[in-house]
Structure formats: C-alpha cells, structure tokens
Amino acid sequence: MPNKDFLLIYHLLPEKTSQQCFSEASTRRPADLLSSFTTIKTVMRGLYKDLGDVLLALLKNTDTRENVLEYLAEVINRNSSRAHIQVEPLSCASSGMFVNLSAVMLRLCDPFLDANLTKRDKIDPKYVFYSSRLDLRSLTALHASSEEVSEWINKGNPAKADGSKHFSDGENQLLQSQEATSSSGGASEPSLPAGRPASIGGGKSKYPFICECFFMTARVLNLGLLKAFSDFKHLVQDISRAEDTLATLKATQGQTPSSQLNLEITRIEKEIELSSQEKLCYEAQILRDGDLIQHALSFYRLMIVWLVDLVGGFKMPLPDTCPMEFACMPEHFVEDAMELLIFASRIPKALDGVLLDDFMNFIIMFMASPKYIRNPYLRSKMVEVLNCWMPRRSGSSSATATLFEGHQMSLEYLVRNLLKLYVDIEFTGSHTQFYDKFNIRHNIAELLEYLWQVPSHRNAWRQIAKEEEKGVYLNFLNFLINDSIYLLDESLNKILELKVIEAEMSNTAEWERRPAQERQERTRLFHSQENIIRIDMKLANEDVSMLAFTSEQIVAPFLLPEMIERVASMLNYFLLQLVGPQRKSLTLKDPEKYEFRPKQLLKQIVCIYVHLARGDTQNLFPAAISSDGRSYNEQLFSAAADVLWKIGEDGRIIQEFIELGAKAKAAASEAMDAEAALGDIPDEFLDPIQYTLMKDPVILPSSRITVDRPVIQRHLLSDATDPFNRSHLTADMLIPNTELKAKIEEFIKSQGLKRHGEGLNIQSIKDTIQTTNGDMLID
C-alpha cells in the first residue's frame, strides 16, 4: 500500500505547499526555490511509484482485474468535462488526481513503448467504435462528422470485435515480465499464470490489455497531464495580462493619483502573488519532472505511428480518400501529441534522446491535408511545433537541424505543404478567422524565411514556383500581398491615432483639466494602440521581407497578367507612404519600440521594384507601375532615390531604380497617347468590374457576363466565386469570348489607323492602354 504521508502531502499541495514553499517568491533566493522544487519532485515520484504498485497489484489479481478496469473507465467517463476550458470543481476530480493517474497509466504502458513499437498491432481501432467501457464515439473526430461516424458504424464496417479474443503467447510473455521490471521501479503489464489463455476479466473483455491500456491512457492524458499543461499556459497568460494592467495602472497613478487606483493596484498585486505561487506549483510537479514528460513523449510517438499505420504508413503522397478508421479517430489524439511537443520544446533538454523523426514525418504528411484532418487550427498547431524546432530558436541546433536539413520527407514536401497551408488558412470557418490567420501565417513565415537559407529547400521552393505558377504558388503570393497591404496600412493609421493621443497627453495643462475617467480611458487606449502597432508592424515587416528575398530569384509569378498590376499598385502605395508628402506625420520618438523601421522598409520595397524590373524581359512592369491611378507619382522615384543615397544603399540598386522610374514615366506618356488615339470606347468593350478596355474577354459560365480574363483571375485568387451571383467558379471554367475579342482588336486597329496612320504601333496600344477611371473593385 502507498505511504499515507505521500497521499496527505499531495492532497495539501495546492493550498499549503504553495504557501509554504513559494510564498513571496519574487523575493526568494533561487537556491530556496530550487530546494522546494527538489522536495516536491521527490515526494511526487514516491507517490507515483506507490500508486502504481497498488494499481499493478490489483490488475495482477484475476479477482479484481476486471473491477479495476471498470473503475478506471468510470473515472474517465465521469470526468469527461475536464476537457472543457472551464471546469466545475464540484463535479469533477481534481487536476492533481488526474496528473497522478496520468503518471501511473504511463508506467503501465512502459512494456509496449519499446523503440521499435513492436506491440502496436495489438491496438485495435475498432475499440473506439465498439468498446463498452469508454465513451469515445462522442468525441470530435479527425475528419468525419458525428453523423458520418454513426452511418459508417451502422453499416457494420468494420465488423464488431470478437468477444472471445484472448492474449497471444507473446502477450502472455510480456505480461509475465511485469514483476521483474516493477521491482526496479519500472512498470509493465500484469502477469498471468504461464500457459493460461486468458482475456482481461476472464473473457469479459473484447480486447487485450495493451489495447485497453492504450486507449485509457490516451483519455487520461487528455483529461490529466495535457489539461494541466493547458491550465498552466492560461495561468501564465493571466499573470502576464495582470502585470500589464498593473503597469498601466501605476503609470496612470503617477499622472492622476486616486485612492481608488491604489486599492485596485493592491488587489492586482495580491492576485499576481497568488497566481505566481500556483504557477510555481505547476512547475514543480510537471515542468521539472523530466521522466514524466519523456514517458508521455514515448506514448505519443506510439500514437502517431499507430495512426499513420491506418493510412498505409509513412509515405507520400497520401491516398486520395481518407480511410474511415483514421477519419473517425478522436481529434484529441493528434492535438495532445502536438501540445505536448510544443510544451516539451520550451523546456530545456526535455527533447534530449527523444526520437523526433516520426513526429516530423507525421507533421509533414498531415499539416496541409484537410481531407485527413479537418480542423485548420489543429494543422496550424503542427506548424507551431516546427516553429519551436527551428535550429536558431531551439538552442540545440544540432538536435533539430537534421529534421529540416537532412530529412528526406522534409526536403521533398516541407516547403510545398507550408505554402499550401498558408493559402488554406485564409478561411478557417471561425468567427475569428480574419485575425487568427495572421498569427498562423506569422509562424509559417518564420519557417519559410529559415528554409530559404537552406539551399536544398530554396531549390525546392523555386521548382514549386515554376511548376505551380498558376496554382498554389500564385494563391500564396496573392495572400502575401493582401496581408502586406492590410498590415502596413493598419499600422500607419494607428501611428497617426497614437500621435493624436500623445499630443493630448503632452499638453499638461489641458490634460489635467480633463475628467479622471476620461484620462484613464485615453491612457488605456494609448497603450492598446501601442500593442496593436507593434504586432501589425512586426507581421508587415515579415511579409515585405519575404517578398523581397523571394523576388530576387522567383520573378515570373509577379509578372503574370493577373498579378502585375496588383504588385505594382502595392509597391507604389508603400513608396507613397514612406517618401510621400505625409511621411513626416509618421515620425515617432522611438520607432524601434513599435518595430517601425522606415529606412529598412524603403530598402526592401526598392529592391522588389528592381528585382522585378530585372526579370521583366517583355518590359511590362513600367506600364503596370504608371497605370496605377491611386498612388503612382513620378516624383516619388526621385524622392526615394535621394533617401537611399543618404542612408547608404547600394549605388547599383539606386541607379536601376531611377532607370525604372524613367521607364514608368515614359510608359505613362505612351499610355496617354494610346488612350487619346482610341477615343471613345464602346461600353461592350469595357470590363464591367474595372471599367478598362478588355484584352482577353471571357464569359462567366453561371452569370453569362463577359469580363477581362486577368481581372477575373485576380479575383479568383482570393475568392473562388462568380462576383455577380456568388456561384462556384474556377479559372478552368472561363469561356473565351472569341467573337468579342475579334471586335476589340478590329476596333483598336481601325482607331489606330484613323488617328495615326500606318505607323501606329497597334500592339503597343493593346499592351499599354489603361484607364484611371475609378479604383479596382475587387482584388
């Protein structure tokens, strides 16, 4: 039996231990805290061993084995609400109890967590559908809906498990090894008399113990250890928010003292102290127990290898149809594995000795596979794992670098699948999808920037852009441009708002005359705007940086008909903001504080201009630049060049940029001559969206409206619908309007001959004619 003192100490851990070991933690010496951590860790290890011994003794006894399994299942089923964000403490077991149970169940799993995972064939996926112990069918599945799961099960596919299934000889030998390993502090399965064919519970169970133990452990970890990780993360976030609030209140108190503020500051300080004590208790029990985390990592390695077996093993590409056995597996099986990897990656040395290759393969296979894992947030969590493993971030580059730089599946599929996920994440189905996508793409962008520095991945990237110029790569480029424009525009607007509040606060006399509540609200708004600017500016810098370094070697997609004007308008807009008339209004006292680096941003924008000009063999880019009626101004090029000379940019870059400006100016003049030559253009020749002369008219199959192909293709990059009736539409569904195209060409030819005689360059007119009548309505 376990030592009663251990049980008593653990029972008191949340209340008494937090106060005894971690009171006034902010002023305690590190050695004192370390001593407390060591004491708690020793106590908990003893507790885990004693509890494990009790459970093991009961499982080894044939008279109690079935009752123990029923008890464990009942505990799990009755505490299923522990998976919720908010847990009602009066209706659920404590976190401490479930962390204890997590540690004990992992010990029972030890015998089948060998390096080669040789016993995984004993884990029957039918358990999820037909087990009478655990309620697994009601859990959210990886891909199948609850209706699809029920329909598939009702069809009798697969057939129900045989209730008379017994252990094999090999399993009996495994069970018989329990007593020997248990004496050394390890754990293995309960032994049965040699030669006796038995199923758990004397034939009552349909499944062998390995199978029962596997699924029970998965549920216990979800409700116990992984829930504790989640609670810890939220606790840290709460403390951080409280500290931010405290800093804001103290700043406000310094400007407008009040007794009410003093009380609020005192309350928050006490709240932070208690939360910090609780945080240290979490650290003592789970963060500093390397054995517990290593055991859990071994279990989830078995989990992901077993799941991959359901789809045919570690090989790409995946089958076109997702097997229902995989589609119906509980989503938390994968989510818990990813959460554990993220958590462990942030603990020094927690991944030492862990075999990560299987995890890496799994992530690469499924992060861009919505047909297999429906939840986009779960797939984005896989990117978060990779983000934690980046060599320059992990601190142990040798341990993780090979996963990116010497891993076959990584070299072949990683960049491709990251680009796919970047596109897919535009629509998550959540009401917060607009904001969520920026955080997810931030992680993807950091990974892509790192991979660009690896020659093999950069070569793969270039090949993907070449192969999928009209496919996923163009969608990726479109969303990258959209995000860049939005983020920079938001940041610059917020800077202007911030400066207004800053000016109000600097006028001390006027500021003091305002009501205290108004000053507090304006102060809070000021700090809120600061945070928004910092985040948006950081993301904008990443996006512009990616456009800069990729455009140096991958130019063709930028210059496609559906992209070239969009790219030119973006660059012109950025140039206008950075060197235009209003640039002085964006001056900040401490721009670095807000990640605002206008000089660096200008350099990158100019480099993109130059990179595209170098690859523009057909001389289309200058006309696209000058056709932008919103932001283009020929004087911006000379103004930008002056700034670049002052900040020491490469003279060759500056000269090429000046030459591009001259070409754009000439193209603008030529376009005006061509527009004058055409005179009044019949309405039927004008695109109904942009109101420009169509070059390649196509008919939309559903609405039957004719539009210009580049215009509708640009729209389809962001939205696969007919803009006139919202019906589904893809580029391959467009119908060429050859009759109208012939009329347009004849019109251009006749107008050209009439106005300028035979010397008129008709092709030049066709290529450069643009209108500035109104802005583009869709992107």
UniProtKB/TrEMBL annotation:
Pathway: Protein modification; protein ubiquitination. Residues 176-199 are annotated as: Disordered. It is an enzyme of class 2 (transferase). Its EC number is 2.3.2.27. One of its GO terms (cellular component) is nucleus. GO terms for biological process: ERAD pathway; protein polyubiquitination; ubiquitin-dependent protein catabolic process. Gene3D superfamilies: Zinc/RING finger domain, C3HC4 (zinc finger) (3.30.40.10). This is RING-type E3 ubiquitin transferase. It comes from Citrus clementina (Clementine).
